[in-house]
Design goal:
The protein is of the alpha/beta class and 279 residues long. It has a single domain, classed as Nitrilase/N-carbamoyl-D-aminoacid amidohydrolase (4-Layer Sandwich). The chain has helices spanning 18-34, 53-59, 67-79, 166-174, 188-206, 257-265; strands at 4-11, 39-41, 82-91, 100-107, 113-118, 124-126, 132-134, 147-150, 153-157, 177-181, 209-212, 216-218, 224-226, 230-232, 238-241, 248-255. β6 (124-126) and β7 form a beta hairpin. The protein is globular.
């Protein structure tokens, strides 16, 4: 869709409970709306960040009962903005599986949930510095991609580790996404090494805006996240970037016509070819 869009990425350092998470992020969303943003995006784990399994189990709620989710839906309606809750850590609701869902929620300006996406790729890694993560132990991965309509164009939904899977982003773009959200809680070592490079690569490959609100700093559960929330244009240019890991609001204006121009210049999304598999 043609025209300009005022957005804001909210960078947070989310606490370990939903009420504290809401208290932390709500003033930043108000600041974003007061600055003119029509679409506000928050990071992965907006409601709570708690990787210690026993403590997380004690504070976990279902989506329809989570204090932060309910509060943010009301806030979107009050402010008259579209809001992407980059993700909320909530009960998955799957019988026989007590793991959580890591779920993006797109909220319209009336406070209604118009799209949901559960993180497809869970973060199971052993980092060179000795850090070890097994997100699959506490999070049930999703089983489908998601593209949602907004007043400004289609939005592709991803979460954090998904950024390392180019084929997902390609499918989102081929499904009409002109914007792709990458809410994240990137670790500090991988963020320093890979964050901006991956974001720019996905934007170049898809000819889409990549919108990446991030967690930043040292959290209550001991993890340290990278911050550096970033907006990348469809030609791969960094439009706006936070150069730190402190909580903040990052504003940007998107020229939605730039998507069509980038895709016309390099129409690689239409150039797929079948080929024999590697043997």
């Amino acid at each position: 869709m043609a025209g300009a869009l005022d957005i804001a990425l909210v960078q947070t350092r989310t606490p370990a409970t939903a009420q504290a998470g809401l208290d932390h992020v709500a003033p930043l969303i108000r600041e974003a709306a007061a600055g003119g943003a029509k679409f506000v995006l928050t990071p992965e784990g907006t409601n709570l960040l708690e990787q210690r399994r026993d403590r997380r189990a004690a504070v976990l709620s279902s989506e329809d009962q989570d204090v932060a989710v309910l509060g943010l839906r009301r806030l979107a309606a009050e402010l008259g903005v579209w809001l992407l809750i980059g993700s909320a850590i909530v009960r998955s609701g799957r019988e026989g599986d007590d793991r959580a869902a890591n779920r993006s929620l797109l909220i319209d300006d009336k406070g209604a949930v118009v799209a949901r996406y559960d993180k497809l790729h869970v973060f199971d890694v052993n980092l060179p510095n000795g850090e070890r993560y097994r997100e699959s132990a506490t999070v049930r991965p999703g089983d489908g991609a998601a593209v949602a309509d907004t007043p400004w164009g289609r939005l592709g939904l991803t979460i954090c580790y998904d950024i390392r899977f180019p084929h997902l982003h390609r499918q989102l773009a081929q499904a009409g996404a002109s914007m792709i959200a990458v809410p994240a809680a990137f670790t500090a070592p991988t963020g320093e090494a890979h964050w901006e490079t991956l974001l720019r690569a996905r934007a170049i490959e898809t000819g889409a805006f990549v919108l990446a609100p991030a967690q930043g700093g040292l959290h209550e559960d001991g993890r340290r996240t990278w911050g550096r929330s970033t907006v990348v244009g469809p030609w791969g240019e960094v439009i706006a970037k936070a150069d730190h890991d402190q909580p903040c609001v990052l504003h940007a204006k998107l020229d939605m016509e730039a998507v069509a121009k980038a895709r016309a210049a390099i129409p690689s999304l239409t150039h797929d070819r079948d080929f024999a598999p590697v043997r």
